[in-house]
Amino acid sequence: MQETNEQGTAVEQSKPLDDLMQKVAEHKGCGTSGGSGKASCGSSAGQGDLPTEIWEKVKNHPCYSEEAHHHYARMHVAVAPACNIQCNYCNRKYDCANESRPGVVSEKLTPEQAAKKVVAVASTIPQMTVLGIAGPGDPLANPEKTFRTFELISEMAPDIKLCLSTNGLALPEHVETIKKFNVDHVTITINMVDPEVGAKIYPWIFHEHKRYKGVEAAKLLSDHQLRGLEMLTEAGILCKVNSVMIPGINDEHLVEVNKAVKSRGAFLHNIMPLISAPEHGTVFGLNGQRGPTAQELKALQDKCEGEMNMMRHCRQCRADAVGLLGEDRSAEFTTDKIMEMDVQYDPEVRREYQETVEREREAKVVAKQAELEEIAGEQSDIRVLVAVATKGSGRINEHFGHAKEFQIYELSTAGSKFVGHRRVDLYCQGGYGDEDALPTVIRAISDCHAVFVAKIGGCPRDELKGAGIEPVDGYAHEFIEQSALAWFKDYLGRVQSGEIEHIDRGDAAIRQGAYVA
User: Fold this and answer.
1) Closest CA to 396 of 433, 430, 364, 438
2) 25, 57, 223, 387: which could form a disulfide with 448 (CB 3.0–4.6 Å)?
3) Cα(266)–Cα(93) distance, rounded to whole angstroms?
4) Would you tell me how many other CB atoms lie within 10 Å of the CB of residue 436?
5) pLDDT per residue as tens digits for the range 177-186
6) Read out DSSP for 430-463?
7) Three-state DSSP class for 410?
8) pLDDT, tens digit, 9 for 90 and up, residues 94-135
9) Helices 15-28 and 347-375, interaxial angle, to 10°?
10) pLDDT in tens, 269-310
């Protein structure tokens, strides 16, 4: 079959790929038309200015590349239940099917079950390129299960990247094994480099059959984390550092953490907001420790952003998450359902599908560049945030009422910049809007000047306007950044003509707790 891409170039498409494209389109709810096999929602691409060897490692890794996360999916398998430290923001006993939070899982797997699940997911979601083990405990506190899982997946699906996320306490003793299994992406959670700060976050750690507490525990943990980071980067393994921002405890201190991990070769620093709600049963949740506001988080990320890359698209995923960042398809792949599936793993079809993703990804970059050239002559100090409802693929393709999150972009005459996302409760409840949910959605994006959607009803449109947020549905199914820049140019024109007055929008709330689905 012959297909036409975004640039109008004819490309050959195989029958198995055609069938797979149909399944993917059906998941997105948009179907294919006329037997062409092309999803009407589409996708797109782009390349940064990284060294070639680094680009090859991150180009289709949704966590290590903000650009890739619009197009490629990941999955976590919950094979590591035990943990060797206690964090005051963690309670692994809590679970809710609609909750997206580290340490949360609906079922634990054996390595054999995990390997079968990975192959089943990769056969159904061809853009799934990364397998991670991130708990629900610590992977390196469960080394036999963790490395047996990697071994099985390497044999069954060698085209999938392997990832590991650890607290770092047992990292130095396992670096050689990590290298042996070709795990070339490791995330370490480092919340402090000062043990006095650490003692407020970690009540205890367990190391070599002994429990340590207080400052002694924090110092031992920090020493192992930083030594492990150095060993990994010396081995050429790409490292991301996660840090939880806890106002009043480590918020200002994270600048020092940023310097420490940067000097030891970390590739990416991900500063995340504390998730703290009483219903989670964590120490911080029960004692009322608050998380940061949206602007507090952005200010710290901006402060740490220099020569080191900052991650702003993290979704603080479940330990059994499946799908694109921002969506969770884990309920489609429970152990019972996996056992009933007829799995046909075809790496060639996966490769062909990912090639179509790359072609459309390139089209998105071209479209953004064209709009940047249009705005290049504008002179203004105005910066605004806008919210975008999207299902992925770098397009504005989600209805306002169906959005579970909004992606946030900062716009200026220098261009567009992704600065984060805001999780929200569903407004649409199948034919009617949830009046209680709408104010929470508006609070989540109240620092934005506009919200881009594929479609929006009359009631939320009026409420948004009343809150000073412009609903924009004139760019439905178009590329996000190209559309946002075109709108921003028009916005500047309206300000300059006196049609509207530009005002600062203030702060916004970061949502805590489970989704209301």
Assistant:
1) 364
2) 387
3) 31
4) 10
5) 999 999 989 9
6) SSSB-TTHHHHHHHHTTT-SEEE-SB--HHHHHH
7) strand
8) 555 445 566 667 788 999 999 999 999 999 888 899 999 988
9) 60
10) 999 999 888 888 889 999 999 999 989 999 999 999 876 788
User: Phi/psi at 423 (nearest 5 deg)?
Assistant: -75, 140
Q: Do the beta carbons of residue 391 and residue 326 sit within 8 Å?
A: no
Q: Is 222 exposed, middle or buried (0-12, 13-18, 19+ CB in 10 A)?
A: buried
Q: Kindly report the number of other CB atoms within 10 A of residue 474's CB atom.
A: 12
CA 133 to chain centre: 15
Question: What does the alpha-carbon distance between residue 354 and residue 351 come to, in Å, rounded to a whole number?
Answer: 5
Tell me which residue of 132, 130, 146 sits closest to 83, measured CA to CA: 146
d(CA 83, CA 80): 8
Q: Which amino acid is at 477?
A: H
Residue with tokens 């997911």: 121
Q: How far apart are the first and last CA of the chain?
A: 40
Task: Please name the amino acid found at residue 337.
Answer: K
Question: Could you give the CA distance from residue 99 to residue 317 in angstroms, rounded to a whole number?
Answer: 9
Place of tokens 């716009």: 411
d(CA 183, CA 212): 30
Q: Strands across the sheet with 128-133, in order?
A: 309-311, 268-273, 238-245, 185-189, 161-166, 128-133, 73-76, 322-323
Give the tokens for residue 221.
């943990």
Is 56 in contact with 65 (CB distance < 8 Å)?
no
Q: Of the candidates 301, 248, 247, which has an alpha carbon nearest to the alpha carbon of residue 275?
A: 247
pLDDT recorded at residue 251: 96
Q: 162, 181 in Cβ contact below 8 A? A: yes
Distance (Å) of CA 108 to CA 75, 77, 89, 93 = 14, 8, 21, 12
Q: What's the predicted TM-score (pTM) here?
A: 0.80
Closest listed residue to residue 383, CA positions, set 491, 289, 287: 491
Q: What is the pLDDT of residue 135?
A: 80
Q: What is the rounded CA–CA span in Å between residue 36 and residue 44?
A: 18
For the CA atoms of 36, 400, 67, 365, what is the dihedral angle to 10 degrees?
A: 60
- Structure tokens given for 302: 């901006």
Tally of CA atoms within 13 A in the half-sphere of 379 that contains its CB = 0
b (16+ CB within 10 A) / e for 277-291: beebebbbbeeebeb
Give the Cα separation of 102 and 514 in Å (integer).
Answer: 12
The residue among 459, 500, 491, 452 whose CA lies nearest residue 474 is: 452
